[in-house]
Design goal:
The chain is mainly alpha-helical. The protein is built from 13 helices and no strands.
């Protein structure tokens, strides 16, 4: 819950940096995540896992793929907040669990019941409504959905723990981030340590607001049932939605007034099916225990 609350309030933090180019903010999110993740891993005594990953070409290739996907996700999100598209960001994270279900069907051959098919179809209709209204795909919503959904999918294939995997990702990204920050400094265009003190501290804090919720989520999710996560995951996009409308003053518009209720209905159907499946699985497991000879 702490992870979802931190993600829910993140637009307020990012908005305070809206006068800085998005790529520069992304670079600092990457750079300052490294020491935080490294300290956590050292305290957990799991640095040997990371060293083993760094010596494995296959692990490095997989880490590079997930690192690329998560950096795209972060970049789109930052740009969305900076350009008054927080509502589209909320929509993207609402759609994400439904996209993950569809991804499981396409890539893993998982079977979908009628309720889940209905939820996925409603999400598709919502995207079509927004596409027709704007004359093109809702880039932010679709981009966040695709990048995070694929990141989560490939992250499952990374055979190391979540903390080690996160540190591996930001370490692989950090040379590019450092190179960009140094280039900005040489060109006199950077904001770190040369702008206001507030800018410097906010850029430093980008590491904490990036690493802390991700690591809280990765470790907490291991202790929860899938149905519980399925309900809790709507906390962050709901908070983003509220901040976008009531704090940032973004307009809903006709298309969004149609699309958001469609997504909410889809999520009600999906969550109901998820909880029902979880209860059925629990009942079957209890029955098997009772009938065990």
């Amino acid at each position: 819950m702490a992870a979802y609350l931190l993600w829910g309030f993140l637009p307020l933090y990012m908005k305070a940096l809206a006068h800085i180019p998005p790529v520069e903010v992304l670079a600092h999110r990457i750079l300052w995540s490294v020491p935080i993740a490294a300290v956590v891993l050292w305290m957990l005594g799991r640095t040997s896992d990371l060293l083993a990953a760094l010596r494995s070409p296959r692990m490095l290739a997989m880490g590079a793929l997930t690192a690329a996907l998560v950096s795209v996700n972060w970049g789109i999100y930052i740009w969305a907040i900076f350009t008054d598209r927080a509502l589209d960001a909320a929509l993207g994270y609402y759609i994400n669990p439904l996209f993950s279900v569809f991804l499981g069907f396409v890539l893993l051959g998982e079977k979908l019941n009628r309720a889940k098919w209905a939820a996925v179809a409603l999400a598709g209709v919502a995207v079509v409504v927004l596409t027709v209204e704007s004359g093109g795909l809702p880039v932010v919503a679709v981009g966040l959905t695709l990048s995070w959904g694929l990141y989560a999918y490939f992250k499952k294939s990374l055979p190391i723990g979540p903390n080690q995997g996160f540190l591996l990702e930001v370490m692989l990204l950090s040379p590019f981030a450092m190179g960009y920050v140094l280039w900005l400094a040489a060109a006199g265009a950077g904001h770190f340590a040369v702008g206001s003190a507030a800018d410097t501290w906010l850029l430093l804090g980008c590491g904490a607001v990036t690493a802390v919720p991700l690591m809280l989520y990765a470790n907490g999710a291991k202790l929860l049932r899938l149905s519980t996560i399925g309900i809790l995951q709507y906390t962050a996009p709901t908070m983003i939605f509220g901040i976008a409308v009531f704090v940032f003053g973004e307009e809903m518009g006709t298309a969004r007034m149609i699309a958001f209720p469609l997504i909410w209905l889809a999520l009600v159907i999906y969550t109901t099916a998820l909880v029902r499946d979880a209860r059925r699985a629990t009942s079957m497991a209890r029955a098997a225990m009772v009938n065990r000879p």
